[in-house]
């Protein structure tokens, strides 16, 4: 919840910033038009300019202001170049002492302030010095010194505003980092709470299942060999589930970086899976044909999980049946086949049922689809069951899902 709030708050800030920028642009355009509407009519009062050139000269004096927010240094350069050219090209009228229009001077000062706020310090120094020399060279009498002091005050004021803006931005960035850190800490605390609940509830009861399954042959009299094998299978399955729960607890208790480095099971660990099933009492014939090194990690993980789920289903729904697992690796594909005959021992778990809410076969099919493969699962004519999957050695886009119609997902 804190993470969502942080994202919403960040998005609101971006939207507000975008809206402010839009209004600033409108304000700059509006001020430019106002200045232009003043510069054009008043130009005949200050300089001797022919009427056809008045719109152009007024534009050179005013339009650089449009760059005050985006490229103030470029705008100042255009305005300064116009300030150099206009006194040289056009004579001033009698009674007007300054070489430029008042509007032109205001534009130069505004661009100087913008440069002080937005540009690098070396650019600010160059622009300040050039502006001072410009006024010393063109302003008559001793007013140049007064303008030098005024221009320096504008630059100092702009640098102070620049420092305030930078400080506020840094403060806002630090606050944003603090909000993200608080959100991350809240996520870690929630993960730790879930880990505690899993440890206190699931892991505890799974440990009890393991203990009861291992001690049952010694606690109960006249335990048959088949029942002993079934208890051993239950204990092995419970231990495996407990190990996976412990791995999940480690992930939940980590800081979010461990899961990326955790090794995932692949084809290289199929022998361990087969040996564990045989120790649980399963009559398993397993074969691996081909070079496992040609199979990607993603495809190898899917192969492992499909066989793991298929063998678990065999032990659950067909206890005592013969099971055959085969993995064929070719250049482009990996073919996985797990079949079992009809049950030969009484099982404690009823056959698959849609109403049970399970998702074993569908989960296998979704894993196959995730790497661009297909999976088929259906009953055999002799009463057994078959899981058959064809996967690419390298991950690809999902291509399909095949389930036997009428057969429920486990």
Automatic annotation (TrEMBL):
Residues 339-358 are annotated as: Disordered. Pfam families: HisKA_3. CDD domains: HATPase_UhpB-NarQ-NarX-like (cd16917). Residues 170-197 form a coiled coil. Residues 339-350 have a biased composition (Low complexity). Keywords: ATP-binding, Coiled coil, Kinase, Membrane, Nucleotide-binding, Phosphoprotein, Transferase, Transmembrane, Transmembrane helix, Two-component regulatory system. Residues 190-255 form the Signal transduction histidine kinase subgroup 3 dimerisation and phosphoacceptor domain. It catalyses: ATP + protein L-histidine = ADP + protein N-phospho-L-histidine. PANTHER family: NITRATE/NITRITE SENSOR PROTEIN NARX-RELATED (PTHR24421), NITRATE_NITRITE SENSOR PROTEIN NARQ (PTHR24421:SF10). The chain crosses the membrane at residues 21-43, 49-68, 73-90, 96-114, 121-139, 145-165. GO terms for molecular function: kinase activity. This is histidine kinase. InterPro entries: HATPase_C_sf (IPR036890), Sensor_HK_TwoCompSys (IPR050482), Sig_transdc_His_kin_sub3_dim/P (IPR011712). The keyword Phosphoprotein applies. The keyword Glycosyltransferase does not apply. Its EC number is 2.7.13.3.
């Amino acid at each position: 919840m804190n993470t969502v709030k942080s994202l919403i708050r960040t998005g609101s800030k971006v939207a507000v910033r975008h809206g402010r920028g839009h209004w600033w642009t409108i304000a700059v355009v509006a001020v430019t038009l106002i200045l232009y509407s003043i510069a054009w009519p008043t130009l005949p009062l200050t300089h001797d300019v022919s009427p056809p050139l008045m719109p152009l000269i007024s534009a050179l004096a005013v339009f650089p202001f449009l760059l005050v927010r985006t490229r103030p240094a470029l705008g100042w350069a255009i305005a300064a170049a116009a300030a150099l050219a206009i006194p040289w090209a056009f004579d001033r009228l009698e009674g007007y002492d300054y070489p430029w229009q008042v509007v032109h001077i205001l534009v130069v000062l505004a661009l100087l302030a913008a440069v002080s706020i937005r540009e690098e310090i070396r650019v600010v120094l160059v622009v300040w010095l050039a502006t001072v020399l410009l006024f010393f060279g063109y302003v008559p009498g001793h007013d140049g010194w007064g303008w030098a002091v005024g221009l320096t005050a504008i630059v100092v004021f702009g640098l102070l505003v620049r420092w305030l803006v930078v400080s506020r931005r840094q403060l806002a960035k630090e606050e944003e980092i603090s909000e993200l850190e608080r959100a991350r800490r809240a996520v870690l605390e929630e993960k730790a709470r879930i880990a505690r609940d899993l440890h206190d509830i699931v892991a505890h009861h799974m440990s009890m299942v393991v203990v009861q399954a291992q001690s049952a042959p010694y606690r109960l009299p006249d335990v048959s060999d088949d029942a002993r094998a079934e208890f051993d299978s239950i204990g092995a399955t419970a231990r495996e589930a407990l190990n996976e729960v412990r791995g999940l607890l480690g992930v939940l208790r980590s800081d979010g970086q461990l899961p990326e480095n955790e090794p995932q099971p692949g084809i290289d660990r199929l022998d361990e899976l087969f040996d564990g099933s045989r120790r649980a009492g399963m009559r398993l014939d397993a074969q691996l044909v081909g070079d496992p090194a040609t199979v990607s990690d993603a495809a190898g993980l899917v192969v492992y999980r499909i066989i793991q789920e298929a063998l678990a289903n065999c032990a659950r729904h067909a206890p005592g049946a013969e099971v055959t697992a085969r993995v064929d690796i070719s250049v482009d594909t990996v073919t996985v086949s797990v079949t079992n005959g009809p049950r030969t021992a009484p099982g404690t778990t009823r056959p698959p049922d849609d109403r049970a809410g399970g998702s074993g076969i569908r989960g296998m099919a979704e894993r196959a689809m995730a790497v661009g493969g297909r999976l088929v699962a259906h009953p055999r004519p002799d009463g057994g069951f078959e899981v058959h999957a064809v996967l690419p050695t390298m991950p690809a886009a999902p291509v399909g899902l095949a389930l036997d119609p009428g057969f429920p997902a486990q």
